[in-house]
Amino acid sequence: MPDSTEFRQRIQRIGDLVRQFEGAGDPVLRAAARELVQLFMELHGAGLERIMEITFQSGGDGPRIIDELGRDPLVSSLLILYGLHPEDLESRVSKALERVSPQLRKHGSGVEVLGIEAGAVRLRIEVGEHSCGSTAKTVQTIVEQAVYDAAPDVTSLTIEGADGKAASGFVALDALLGAHTTPVMAITRDSGD
After folding, report:
1. Structural domain of 58
2. For the chain, what is the domain count?
3. By the 8 A CB rule, do 76 and 69 touch?
4. Which of 50, 81, 112 is the last residue of a domain?
5. Cα–Cα distance between 26 and 45 in angstroms, integer?
6. How many CB atoms lie within 10 A of CB 70?
7. pLDDT digit string (tens) for the chain, length 193 residues
8. What are phi and psi of 77, to 5 degrees?
9. Which of 43, 80, 110, 139 counts the highest number of beta carbons within 10 A?
């Protein structure tokens, strides 16, 4: 079984090859390459879907096996790619945030899901009063990594409150004047279109 780094390198190489075909000057070649990739995707997707059906219908441990497949990083990526993952996007994001919750608490922080719609995830991070700006960046990085690892099919990730808190004892002028705004950081993952 390939390790995580090797797997990611293969995925990047596939992306590079697809971009090369898309950049080809010959429109017939581009169309043929696109059709070839699409046919392979359809064939593999149908095969994987049938494997999942047979596993589930086998009864007994079938549903448990499917859940295990969904938790395996390599298999999970394939199931997501083909739209066959046993958990929906919202469940995967929520579980990922639950997994990193103890790590966030160590930083005096937390995260709240504001909404998930059509692949777009909106979160708010809460950084403790006595945290510094680097804590906010660390928390943001932890949250981003958790979400993208569990749900690489996320189309966009918006994190509110990722501005970082001032060091303890410092009060920003706009806070004193009542000009409170909530900074928003939007991270959009290129869908490859």
Report:
1. 4-81
2. 2
3. yes
4. 81
5. 28
6. 18
7. 555 677 778 878 887 888 888 888 888 988 888 888 889 888 988 888 888 889 888 878 888 898 888 888 778 888 888 888 888 889 999 999 999 999 988 888 889 899 998 889 999 988 876 566 677 788 888 999 899 888 888 888 998 886 644 333 333 334 444 444 343 444 444 444 4
8. -60, -40
9. 139
For tokens 């991070």, what's the residue? 125
Q: What CATH number did the domain enclosing 102 receive?
A: 3.30.300.130
140-149's contacts with Cβ under 8 Å and 24+ in sequence apart are: 140/185, 142/100, 142/103, 142/104, 142/107, 143/97, 143/100, 143/104, 143/111, 144/187, 146/96, 146/97, 146/99, 146/100, 147/93, 147/96, 147/97, 147/121, 147/123, 148/189, 149/73, 149/96
Secondary structure letter of residue 7 according to DSSP: H
109 in Cβ contact with 101 (< 8 Å): no
Nearest to 78 by CA among 142, 32, 10, 160: 10
> Are residues 129 and 59 both part of a single domain?
no
Please give the angle made by the CA atoms of 135, 141 and 146, to the nearest 5 degrees. Answer: 130
